[in-house]
């Protein structure tokens, strides 16, 4: 199970996270949107491009203030090689704590 919390704000809880590892980067947990409290997220018009996954769309967590800006992202239509993460959301581990539990 993955719990995503910041202080006392519970953002997500899932048993369906996907772990994506690439190159020398630490593994990233991607969570299905139905397991995330989407009412806590705000979607700005900010995107980035990854040559391995495609275009990332970002979300902010307004309750966190500045650390919450663009702290969550997803790939709505990722490249076929990582197609299983389509629609799943991930977060910056240095801004939002992710705890793995049984």
TrEMBL record:
<protein>
    <recommendedName>
        <fullName>DUF427 domain-containing protein</fullName>
    </recommendedName>
</protein>
<dbReference type="InterPro" id="IPR038694">
    <property type="entry name" value="DUF427_sf"/>
</dbReference>
<feature type="domain" description="DUF427">
    <location>
        <begin position="11"/>
        <end position="92"/>
    </location>
</feature>
<dbReference type="InterPro" id="IPR007361">
    <property type="entry name" value="DUF427"/>
</dbReference>
<dbReference type="Pfam" id="PF04248">
    <property type="entry name" value="NTP_transf_9"/>
</dbReference>
